[in-house]
Amino acid sequence: MQGFLFPKSPTGKASLIPAPPWHYSGEMITVEYRTDPGRVAELLPEGAELPEDDPGAVAIIWADWQSCGDDFAEILDPARAQYKECFVVIRGVWEDELWSRCAYIWVDKDFALVRGYHQGYPKKLGEIWMTRPITVGRAGPRLEEGARFGATLSANGRRLAEAVVTLTEPADRPGFVNAHPMLHNRMWPAIESDGTQSMDELVTMRGYDGEVADVWAGTAELDLFESPTEELALLREAEMIGGYYHRVGVSWKGGTTLRD
User: Fold this and answer.
1) Over the chain, what is the mean pLDDT?
2) C-beta separation of 182 from 102 below 8 A
3) In the predicted model, what is the mean pLDDT of residues 179-189?
4) What DSSP string describes 104-157?
5) Using 50, 70 and 90 to split pLDDT, how confident is the model at 134?
6) How many CA atoms lie within 13 A of 69 on its CB side?
7) Residue range 156-165: average pLDDT?
8) Confidence of residue 66 (pLDDT cuts 50, 70, 90)
9) 3-state SS, one letter per residue, for 143-185
10) Which among 96, 108, 227, 246 is least buried, having the fewest CB atoms inside 10 angstroms?
């Protein structure tokens, strides 16, 4: 039986995802703001602490991706390449190092969902939409001062978040919260359902061959909404930092187990 991940099959073609490396190209709309640091601390892994600098900083990021394996087969079969996601990033200090951590994330394709489980991203299914910049016509904003971008997140029929970013000027970087190596948990409950884990790892990862372009900073508006099955609204905005747009490309091959 062949294949990087389930389902295994005689040829391996049925696997939900190909073996790494994986390549990503896309664009992001980011909103950074400050919330109650105590709410951020609740989302850190055991042994991690809040950073002294901006302990309540949060980034909510909308991303429109095209991705593929090393044979680039998905590029000519775009249903297997294109997806959108929205994820929430916080920061924490573990063993005297500063890390970024994805606390919540929603995606709209199954291959992106299970690929995230392999990497330690706690992905759930959702509906993600974001304004696209244009270079011709009038049906969208150009990358220029005053351009406005909208982004929304829904799951299970409920609106969870919506944002508007208004560009003001080109920037050197698209924020600071999602700027460090990731600190994630990979876990799976034991089949006995007795409270033990078959897998319980603290891992880190970082991509390679990264490229960033068309970085713009701006002002941002954000609304988070209550849901009976989500806790995103607990990270309510206390103070807005700002918004960003940028294009990004990166490749990923593997991570490192920090604690097992």
Assistant:
1) 97
2) yes
3) 97
4) EEEESSHHHHHHHHHHT--EEE-EEEEPPP-SSSSSS--SSTT-EEEEEEEETT
5) very high
6) 15
7) 98
8) very high
9) CCCCCEEEEEEEECCEEEEEEEEEEEEECCCCCCCCCCCEEEE
10) 96
User: Closest Cα to residue 40, out of 59, 22, 26, 25?
Assistant: 59
Closest CA to 221 of 143, 164, 162: 164
**Which tokens sit at 174?**
């698209």
Map residue 28 onto helix, strand or coil: strand
What the block records as the tokens of 73 is 């087969």
Mind listing the pLDDT tens digit for each residue in 221-243?
999 999 999 999 999 999 999 99
Domain spans of the chain, in order of start: 22-259
Q: Which two tokens stand for residue 75?
A: 């590029």
Region 51-60 average pLDDT: 98
Helix (H, G, I), strand (E, B) or coil at 196: coil
Q: Mean pLDDT, to the nearest integer, of 98-119?
A: 98
pLDDT for res 142: 98
Task: Give me the pLDDT at residue 99, please.
Answer: 98
- For residue 79, the SS3 value is helix
For the domain with range 22-259, which CATH number is right: 2.60.120.10, 2.40.400.10, 3.90.1150.180, 3.40.50.720? 2.40.400.10
What lies within 8 Å, CB to CB, of 250 at 6+ separation is 23, 24, 207, 208, 209, 210, 211
**Quick one: which of 59, 68, 179 has its CA closest to 115?**
68
